[in-house]
Amino acid sequence: MEKIYDVIIIGAGPAGMTAAIYASRANLSVLMLEKKFYGGQMQSTGEIENYTGYEEISGPELSEKMFQHSKKFGTEFAFGHITDIKEIDGLKVLTANSKEYVAKTVIIATGTEAKSLGIPGEDKFSSKGVSYCAVCDGAFFRNRKVVVIGGGDSAVEEALYLSNLVEKVIIVHRRDELRAQKILQDRAFAKENIEFVWESVPVEIKGDMKVNAVSVRNLNTNEITDVEADGVFIYIGMNPQTSDFQNLGILDENGYVIADEHLETKLPGVFVAGDVRQKEIRQVVTAASDGAIAAQSAYKYIELS
Ligand code: NAP
To answer: Fewer CB within 10 Å, N- or C-terminus of the chain?
Structure first.
């Protein structure tokens, strides 16, 4: 007979790890499962300076601190990719590869993953100049030229991180103004080695053995020009990691999980937390907040059932 956990948390980002702290501190038995690495997107974030209590901390360092904290009150941790959740006799049965896990409640905290551009050269030069993670790959481009695609918080924040390593960063954005927070914009405009190519989209990533240019199309003139670069960092937004939960009927049209204010989905005992939830503001601090609420709701659900 499988062990029956009070709570199984799927995903060990800030939402999942905070849910683990709250649930295990409430004396619930908790298993946190992660398919890749704990920390989620924080692991690929250079500096975080808007998580309360830390004026500035690297994403990997905050990941490590949260992970150690999440296990302090007895949460078990395992690697595993959940591909199915079933309701059997009032319990949730989760499948990961050939293994099954059983719990009274589930918290989905699987987060989001980087979108790809889908243009020629993107796959071909993956790890040969194309990257989705400045923290992981930035050092390979020391004193060289890189292009960053996108105009949101991630693109501008990581362009700033890269600008301290590389000779020049060229941000290619499809509009004539950035989407990123004002403070990030101001910093980027003040950096001498960050340049902008406005109202343009990448159409091809070119190279030989490695990337040597990105072809961009100006959206006003349709003119295509090559921007010389040794690396391309793609930050054009995120997709929710919910492809395994499509049959549950809890997703919106964009694949995000719908929940009420207690973060319970329409399936009793199935909760959601973090960026994977349908919501407006996606930050480390809001993910952590979701984790606390979802764990507390799971506790109440168990108490009442
Ligand atoms: P995002 O906010 O969705 O921004 C994506 C950017 O890529 C936008 O500028 C968008 O252009 C552009 N884009 C989208 N599709 C494109 C395409 N096919 N070709 C070219 N450009 C394309 O995504 P994000 O920056 O990854 O941020 C995700 C979430 O995390 C947001 O809620 C963000 O606030 C949050 N976040 C916060 C922080 C922080 O607080 N420090 C850091 C990172 C991320 P348009 O502007 O024209 O739509």
So the answer is: N
Q: Per-residue pLDDT tens for 102-148?
A: 999 999 999 999 999 999 999 999 989 999 999 989 999 999 999 99
Active site residue 136: yes
Neighbour tally for 293: CB within 10 Å: 21
Question: Which 3 state secondary structure label does DSSP give 275?
Answer: coil
Helical axes 284-304 vs 14-25, angle rounded to 10°: 40
CA 234 from centre of chain: 14
Distance in Å, CA 5 to ligand 1 centroid? 37
pLDDT higher than threshold 90 for residue 98: no
Q: pTM here?
A: 0.91
Nearest CA, atom 43, ligand 1 = 154
Distance, in Å, from the CA atom of 236 to the CA atom of 114, rounded to the nearest integer, reads: 7
Active site residue 137: yes
Residue nearest to atom 36 of ligand 1 (CA): 153
How far, in Å, CA of 292 to CA of 66, rounded?
A: 13
Residue nearest atom 22 in ligand 1 by C-alpha distance: 236
The model's pLDDT over 55-88, given as tens digits with 9 standing for 90+, comes to: 999 999 999 999 999 999 999 999 999 999 999 9
d(CA 110, CA 112): 7
